[in-house]
Amino acid sequence: MTTVAHTLVIGATGTTGSRLVSRLAARGHRVSAASRRPTAVDGARPVRFDWYDSTTYADALRGADRVYLVPPLGSAEPGTTVPPFLEQARAAGVRRAVLLSSSAVPAGGPATGEIHLALPGLFDEWAVLRPSWFMQNFTGNHLHAQSIREDGMFWTATGEGRVAFVDADDIAEVAAHALTDGPAPNTDLLITGPEALSHGEIATTLTAVTGRPVTHRHFTHEQLHDRLAESMPAAFATFLVGLDRAIADGAEDRTTDTVQRITGRPPRTFRAHAELVTGPPLPDRLS
Questions:
Q1: Least confident span in 3-12, 27-36, 112-121, 208-217
Q2: How deeply is 281 buried, as exposed, middle or buried, from its count of CB atoms within 10 A (0-12, 13-18, 19+)?
Q3: Strand 162-163 and strand 96-100: pairing?
Q4: Which residues contact 279 (CB under 8 A, 6 or more apart)?
Q5: Longest CA–CA separation in the chain, Å
Q6: Omega before 183 cis (within 30°)?
C-alpha cells in the first residue's frame, strides 16, 4: 500500500503558499495549511502556526512527511527563529523540506541564506527555491502595487537595473514539483521569468495594458531607507535597500530555464501577467 504524501505548507494564505496548497490538493496530496489564523484552503487541513510560538509546532507537524518553509516575514534574522522548528520537524518524521528564499540571497548569505546553508545537514531530501522578484509586487498587496493603485506611481532605488521578474504561479508550480517529484532536487533552484526588465519598463508595460499612466520614481538609497523605515524595523529597511542597490549594480540581470526544465512549460511574461490580472489587453503601445 502506497502512503499518500502529507505536506505542511507554512504561509498557506500567502502569495506562494496559497497557490501551492491549491496545486497539491488538486493532485490528491494531503495538505496541512498553516498560518497564524487557520484558514480552510481548498480542502486542506487548517492549522495554527506561529514562528514565534513553539507550542504551535507539534500540531502543525502532525502526520507531515514534507514541509514548505516560508520564513517569518519582516525578519532580517530568520536564522535564529527557524532552526529550532527544523530540528523538531526532523524528529517528527519530516524527510523533505523546501525553503522559499530569494535569488538575491546565496547559501550562507544574510537572512534565509543561513537556513539555506543548514538545510542539507538536517534533511536527506531538500530544495531551496531562489525566485527573482515577484510580478505580484506590482499587482497584489505589495507597497508598489498599493502605490500604483493610489497614486499611479511606485518608487525604488534600483536605477536602470534590470530584473527577470517571475510570476508567483510559476514559483508555486516549481515548489509543487520540488516537494513531490522523486528524487528530490537536493540543490537550490534559481527561478526567473523569461526576460529581464527595468522598473521603468515595468511602468511602461502597466501603462500600456491598463490605459492608466504609471510612473517609476527614482529614489536615492537614503530616501528609500527613510521611506521604508516608516513602516518596518530599521534593520529590515537597511536589508531591503541593499537589495535595491544590488539590482542597480546588475545582480538580477539574468534569466534561467528553471521553470521550463522543472514544470515542462515556459514561465509567464510580465505583460501576460498584467493582462491576466487587469482584464483584456489594450493595443500594444510599447513599440
A1: 3-12
A2: middle
A3: unpaired
A4: none
A5: 61
A6: yes
